[in-house]
Amino acid sequence: MTVGLPGTFGFLLFPDFPMACLSAAIEPLRAANEISGKKVFHWQLIAEREGPIMSSAGVQFSPDVTLENCKNIETIFILSMPNAQFENQKSGYARLRWLDRVGVTLGGFSGGVFPLARSGVMQGHQSSVHWCYEAAFKSEFPNITVIDTLVMFENRRITASGSGAVFDVMLSQISTYLGNDIMAEVACWFQHPLVRDCGVAQKVPVRHTASTKDSLPKAIRDAISLFEQHIEDPIRIADAAAIVGLSERHFERMFKLETGHSPLRFYRNLRLEKVRQRVLHTSDSLTEIAVSTGFEKSGLMTKYYAQEFGLKPREERKNMSTFRQMSVNRQAVS
């Protein structure tokens, strides 16, 4: 296989792939071709095997080619849920490694970074990982550096955290091949902000508020960052207050005013969010999860988890397993 001409993209789809990411990737390319009056960009939908494949929205797509038979493609992006696996794992992951060896650029959108990492091609690279998958990704791939930016371009690797970030990736490609004028017009067609670079951080919601982390006062942002750095080894609230330059009393008042929760409650819920990511997207035992998220006992973690999310971890994991099996059955019927 030879690497395809510049501007040839393949989108490797797994069952339940995020349809928003596919649309965010293809539509700006289509618009760029139309605006420029030239068919600069070409794309193909790829799957492991022939036959229709269903997106997370329940909409079916017909791949153009199988992964084994794809050729003349410059860049392949993987679109999937975090739990995605090849039906034939040995040959599927080997194919991705071979594509890397022959010079194809590889990338992952949203949950697609998981199978990308499972193939082994992300060793020595950094990856943008969506904030809602971060804990699960770090658990499965502790040797891969995770960054909290929207996108990451690095040595024939491109990762994007979500569909908005995917649009940024494609605007960047349009800028490279057709220039900034066409890129700006494409962005305006879709009323999308002009391309954001690799250094822009993801927007992360503050639970139970209508705010995002970056909208909070600096002292509160810094405290939350401290909490995020000390998931496994919780830091004392008094120590966090001192580090951000506030008295403990003033810190607690200010924190509750901005977030609606005491620092202690907020910190515990933050750790529970990391627990939930791993309950839903890994097979780690509850004991392993409890220890790595700062809970002395899994029973205590389960108690707080049920209070916060309405279900015990085992119940929610079982529900997710049932949901995924229903999706598998739906794919089989299609």
Approximate helicity band: 40-55%
Oligomer: single chain
CATH class descriptor name of the largest domain: Alpha Beta
SSE order, one letter for each helix or strand: EHEEEEEHEHEHEEEHHHHHHHHH
The helix-and-strand class reads alpha/beta
CATH topology grouping of the largest domain: Rossmann fold
Biggest sheet character: 7 strands, mixed
Uncertain stretches of 5 or more adjacent residues: none
Please state the average pLDDT score.
93
Describe the structure.
This protein is α/β, with parallel strands linked by helices and 334 residues long. The chain folds into two domains: 8-189, Class I glutamine amidotransferase (GATase) domain (Rossmann fold), CATH 3.40.50; 213-320, Homeodomain-like (Arc Repressor Mutant, subunit A). The protein is 48% helix and 13% strand. The protein has 13 helices and eleven strands. It has a seven-stranded mixed sheet. Strands 3-4 form a two-stranded antiparallel sheet. It has a two-stranded parallel ribbon with strand order 8-9. Strand 8, helix 4 (134-140) and strand 9 (145-147) form a beta-alpha-beta unit. The two termini are 32 Å apart.
What is the topology?
Blueprint: E1 8-13, H1 19-36, E2 42-47, E3 53-54, E4 60-61, E5 65-66, E6 75-80, H2 89-101, E7 105-110, H3 113-118, E8 126-128, H4 134-140, E9 145-147, E10 151-153, E11 157-160, H5 163-178, H6 180-189, H7 218-229, H8 237-243, H9 248-259, H10 263-281, H11 286-292, H12 298-309, H13 313-333
Parallel strand pairs: 1-2, 1-6, 2-5, 6-7, 7-11, 8-9
Antiparallel strand pairs: 3-4, 10-11
